[in-house]
Write a structure and sequence with these properties.
heterotrimer; A alpha/beta (485); B alpha+beta (95); C alpha+beta (482); B: 95 residues; alpha+beta; Histone, subunit A; two-stranded antiparallel ribbon; 3 helices; flat; C: 482 residues; Arc Repressor Mutant, subunit A; 15 helices; 16 strands; EC 6.3.5.- (chain C); protein biosynthesis (chain C); glutaminyl-tRNA synthase (glutamine-hydrolyzing) activity (chain C)
Chain lengths: 485, 95, 482
């Protein structure tokens, strides 16, 4: 097996057995990125020098007797995690030249665990999008079909892992931005409980919804990565001070007695029936593993999209005010006065979708509309949370499709942003409620991957990884690689 | 209630987003489509429902009052568009 | 027409924490530009705020001191507007759920009455940076050292009816925050700033007139002048058939006038919403009990104690309790000399004029409380007279001795109490003024009084002020009557 085909777990054994060194692995992957990525456009920055120095240091640490599961493991970060002295762009022109003066907590923690950072991954600009088409650095292509989108906003992360350029990557999920691209590229991706992973250094889109998490080829690798990424951070007021579970140990739990809920609202109009069938296929497998299944209801699910498209843009409109051309990033040429500085720096620096959402959010918060939009959306947010709380009184886990459709053609939904917003229907409820969610491979339709989504109560990431892992022990979907990669 | 050109111009001004003449009509249409999607929310009965701002409803943690930051001006200003004498420069601020 | 002035004040008090409200940078005044601006203060992408416990404690102290309700749940909101001294494009403040609710503060007016001023609320927020308008080739410079300094914004009810009342209120707040140790009160450095909402209405009218807000007035004197000017402007405007517009104005102390401010967000749509990076702040009752127990004696309590314990007049007690430093000084003097009334007289009299003359604060006084107390002891035991004491005080102020005793010794100011010596001296004085003695003896009781004073004067002059005045009086009377 070539080195690029190895999972994180296999890399850990390879390194431990001295089959290869971290430096050899890193050199090999850097070469592969250089050769293959032009087809995909998944990297914004390749950090060759940093990677080689981290690899060297990992080899030294190992020689000195260290043996961490991620020591020497190559990864890459979504380009909204701040990395010291490395361009951190959020795929936006407005962050031109922004070499972050500090490391995000996630970056720091993973580096401390010994990972090797190969680069910064493409994404939708400021994580606003579900197709990775809004990047200032151009769209990312889906390795399963280069004419199709990889999903978004963590599209670069998904494409790079799916194409075996890297074994795993970080992503962020505000409305499905880890789970949806994982589904469209045949990966396992986890959005943890809100507050489980520090947001320090993770450039905000919508602060009350954003969560960082892993994308990898299987649940086991996600568990490895999450173990190192997650945990309390005093620098983030919304970070939760609660001990981490042992995610790896939880993987082997048997599923006997697991109560699974199938929300009827997830199988209504708008869902590609072929995807629905794949979901039911997964349910059948889980039954064989000892799970019981019942139909449940999440009656307010249909209101999630409007509520989300108020709350997220409202927070974004304020979060993105700091991009003003004064202290960092893009500044327009020869501003004639202060207003001109602001308007042209922001007008020229932000892309269309970002400007659109800033305007929606500005409007929703403005005098006279606040109650009708913002407060109303937050009330709906509570209804959605309440739906989950009630459902989890009856079942341990909720299962459904991750996306209503297969990966679409690049450019197909550009004319009508609303049609792209509707693609988030199954994922955004988890962000509004703050619960963890995972997408895992569930088969193929027309040669394109289908993802199934698992949702669990607060802080039950271990349960999600456990169920996905058990499923992956008896199925092969997740091992499929796109042709040519 | 649909947004008009003047509403869009006002919102763009509040958000300090320069829109070109050509962008305005298209932006107005798209924003109206999005607001159409959002307005579906108005049909939901939310009487008596407490708004939810944070999913976990946790409370604020407090930091001990200690100075741990040191002067990093040089590093921080290395990425600034315009600085002089340690100050960030902007077009004249008129009070 | 008779006009009535209505004033409400918004006071921004910089809390004297070590670090900023949401970051661990120092808050020291006067540092080199942008050397106290951390990633958080600069609004760097990805940074997040964490609330300073001390800022919360200080706000609670203030709330308890004004008898206010402290909100068990208070929430930070974002006030969105673009300005170069506001790095994030929003100010983190409190809107609908401030930490301190309704309270009140009593102020003493010049006529000796006490007036209760309502305090609507006080909330925590972050300060902005500063725009420096020196010309950098047509550009302004931005210093963000001040950005993120904790502020307590104290909003009064529109209960104030004159510029003088406004000043009395600001002074009372100033004294209170200094007593509590939550703000250094240094108005020149901007630690305490005041926005004045001023309106006028015909006397007897219930509704308020349209108000104008005068921003950032930074001294007691300017508060009075700015308000008086603004009141005059509004009355003249209305009497000339015009209307007051609700707007923000700036006071220019050089021209003694206010002018309209056009800048800031014209539309004034701040789009407040709860800050998603901060969670609701919960104040437990046990915490409040602990803060309450730690409160120092407050100005009102101190005033009452001074009256009861020392028998001081209401006026003296008010003056002495006005600042914590003054009160502490007075009590230190009293503890040395054991005579509160003399101590009060000296602190409010000679000491205050000395400080005023040299423009010093009481904690910079060249005469220490121990020195002054020691000197008063010498007045009490008749070592020196009150008049000589003034000389001793001046000598102490000039550093001519470490203690009153040393000055008295060195300058030979000790009072003469030897009656033999005084009698001999008096005999000389009477002999030198034989004519006046004759006249005195020939006069009736009514005239004698005035003439007696002449002899006392001559006697004190002859003794260079050192003769004990009581003894001089007594012996002189005997000699003249004999």
């Amino acid at each position: 097996m070539s080195m690029h085909e190895l999972t994180l777990r296999q890399i850990a054994s390879g390194l431990a057995n001295k089959d290869f060194s971290a430096t050899e692995l890193t050199q090999s992957l850097l070469a592969r990125i250089q050769a293959v990525d032009p087809q995909l456009n998944s990297f914004i920055t390749v950090t060759e020098e940093l990677a080689l120095s981290q690899a060297k240091s990992a080899d030294e640490r190992r020689a000195a007797g260290e043996n961490g599961a991620l020591l020497g493991a190559p990864i890459a970060h979504k380009d909204l995690f701040c990395t010291r002295n490395v361009l951190t762009s959020c795929a936006s022109k407005i962050l031109s030249g922004f070499k972050a003066p500090y490391d995000a907590t996630v970056v720091e923690k993973l580096a401390a665990a010994g990972t090797v950072t190969l680069g910064k991954l493409n994404m939708d600009e400021f994580a606003m999008g579900s197709a990775n088409e809004s990047s200032h650095f151009g769209p990312v292509k889906n390795p399963w079909d280069l004419t199709r989108v990889p999903g978004g906003s963590s599209g670069g992360s998904a494409a790079a892992v799916a194409a075996r350029l890297i074994p795993a990557a970080t992503g962020t999920d505000t409305g499905g931005s880890i789970r949806q691209p994982a589904a469209l590229t045949n990966l396992t991706g986890l959005k943890p409980t809100y507050g489980r992973v520090s947001r320090w250094g993770m450039i905000a889109y919508a602060s009350s919804l954003d969560q960082g998490g892993p994308l990898a080829r299987n649940a086991e690798d996600c568990a490895l990565l999450l173990q190192a990424m997650a945990g309390f951070d005093p620098k983030d007021s919304t970070s939760v001070d609660q001990p981490l579970d042992d995610y790896l140990a939880a993987l082997s739990q048997p599923l006997a007695g697991l109560r699974i809920g199938l929300p009827r609202e997830y199988f209504g109009a708008g869902l590609d029936a072929r995807i629905g069938e794949k979901v039911l296929g997964v349910v059948e497998e889980l039954k064989k593993l000892g799970a019981t299944v019942k139909e449940i209801s999440l009656p307010n699910m249909q209101h999630a999209i409007p509520a989300y498209y108020v709350i997220a843009p409202a927070e974004a409109s304020s979060n993105l005010s700091r991009f003003d051309g004064v202290r960092f990033g893009y500044r327009c040429e020869n501003p004639v006065n202060l207003e001109d500085l602001y308007k042209r720096s922001r007008g020229e620096g932000f892309g269309t979708e970002v400007k659109r959402r800033i305007m929606v959010g500005t409007y929703a918060l403005s005098a006279g509309y606040y109650d009708a939009y913002y407060i109303k959306a937050q009330q709906i947010r509570r209804l959605i949370k309440n739906d989950f709380v009630a459902a989890f009184n009856e079942v341990d886990l909720i299962i459904g499709p991750t996306t209503p459709n297969l990966a679409w053609k690049i450019g197909e939904k550009n004319a009508d942003p609303v049609s792209a917003y509707l693609e988030d229907i199954y994922t955004i409820t988890a962000n509004l409620a703050g619960i963890p969610g995972l997408s895992m491979p569930a088969g193929f339709v027309d040669g394109l991957p289908v993802g199934v989504q698992l949702l669990a109560p607060y802080f039950q990431e271990a349960r999600l990884l456990n169920v996905a892992h058990q499923y992956q022990q008896v199925t092969e979907w997740h091992t499929q690689a796109p042709t040519g990669f | 209630m649909a947004l008009e050109r003047s509403d869009v111009e006002k919102i763009a001004h509040l958000a300090r987003l320069g829109l070109t003449e050509a962008e305005v009509p298209q932006t107005t249409d798209t924003l109206n489509n999005i607001l159409g999607l959002i307005d579906a929310m108005q049909a939901v009965d939310t009487t008596g429902i407490e708004p939810l701002a944070h999913p976990l409803e946790a409370t604020q943690r407090l930091r001990a009052d200690m100075v741990t930051e040191t002067n990093q001006r040089e590093a921080y200003q290395a990425i600034a568009p315009a600085v002089e004498s340690g100050l960030y420069l902007v077009p004249k601020v008129i009070e | 027409m008779q006009w009535e002035t209505v004033i409400g004040l918004e006071i921004h008090a910089q809390l004297s924490t070590q670090s900023k409200i949401f970051s661990a940078s120092a808050t020291t005044f006067g540092a080199e530009p942008n050397t106290q601006a951390s990633l958080v203060d600069l609004g760097m992408p990805g940074t997040l705020p964490v609330l300073n416990a001390e800022a919360v404690r200080m706000a609670c102290k203030f709330g308890l001191a004004i008898d206010a309700h402290i909100a068990p749940h208070n929430i930070f909101a974002r006030k969105n507007y673009f300005y170069p001294d506001l790095p994030k494009g929003y100010q983190t403040s409190q809107m609908d759920h401030p930490i301190v609710g309704k309270g009140h503060l009593d102020i003493s007016l010049e006529d000796g009455t006490v007036k209760r001023i309502g305090i609507t609320r006080a909330h925590l927020e972050e300060d902005a940076g500063k725009s420096l308008h020196e010309d950098f080739h047509g550009m302004s410079g931005i210093d963000l050292n001040r950005a993120g300094t904790p502020l307590l914004e104290i909003v009064s009810e529109p209960d104030i009816r004159s510029a003088k009342e406004a000043v009395a209120y600001v002074k009372a707040i100033h004294a209170l925050v200094r007593y509590l140790g939550i703000c250094d009160g240094n108005m020149a450095e901007g630690s305490l700033r005041c926005d004045c909402n001023v309106s006028v209405r015909p006397k007897g009218q219930a509704e308020f007139g349209t108000r104008a807000e005068i921003k950032n007035v930074n001294s007691f004197r300017f508060i009075e002048k700015a308000i008086n000017h603004e009141v005059q402007r509004q009355i003249e405007l209305i009497e000339d058939g015009g209307q007051v517009v609700q707007e923000t104005r700036l006071y220019d102390p050089n021209k003694d006038q206010t002018r309209s401010m056009r800048s800031k967000e014209e539309a004034n749509d701040y789009r407040y919403f709860p800050c998603p990076d901060l969670l609701p702040v919960v104040i437990e009752q046990s915490f409040l009990d602990e803060v309450r127990a730690s409160l120092p004696e407050l100005p009102v309590q101190k005033r009452e104690r001074f009256e009861a314990q020392f028998g001081l007049s209401a006026y003296d007690a008010t003056v002495l309790a006005a600042s914590r430093e003054m009160a502490d000084y007075f009590e230190a003097v009293n503890s040395v000399c054991g005579d509160a009334k003399l101590a009060a007289n000296w602190v409010m009299g000679e000491l205050s004029s000395l400080l005023n003359k040299d423009n010093l604060e009481i904690d910079q006084s060249p005469v220490s409380a121990e020195q002054l107390g020691g000197m008063i002891l010498r007045i009490k035991d008749n070592t020196i007279s009150g008049k000589i004491a003034k000389m001793v005080f001046e000598a102490l102020a000039a550093g001519e001795g470490a203690t009153a005793d040393e000055v008295i010794e060195k300058k030979g100011l000790k009072q003469v109490t030897d009656s033999g010596a005084i009698e001999a001296m008096l005999d000389e004085v009477l002999a030198a003024n034989a004519e006046q003695v004759e006249q005195y003896r020939a006069s009736d009781e009514a005239k004698r009084g005035k003439m007696f004073g002449f002899f006392v004067g001559q006697a004190m002059k002859a003794s260079k002020g050192k003769a004990n005045p009581g003894q001089v009086n007594e012996l002189l009377k005997k000699k003249l009557e004999s």
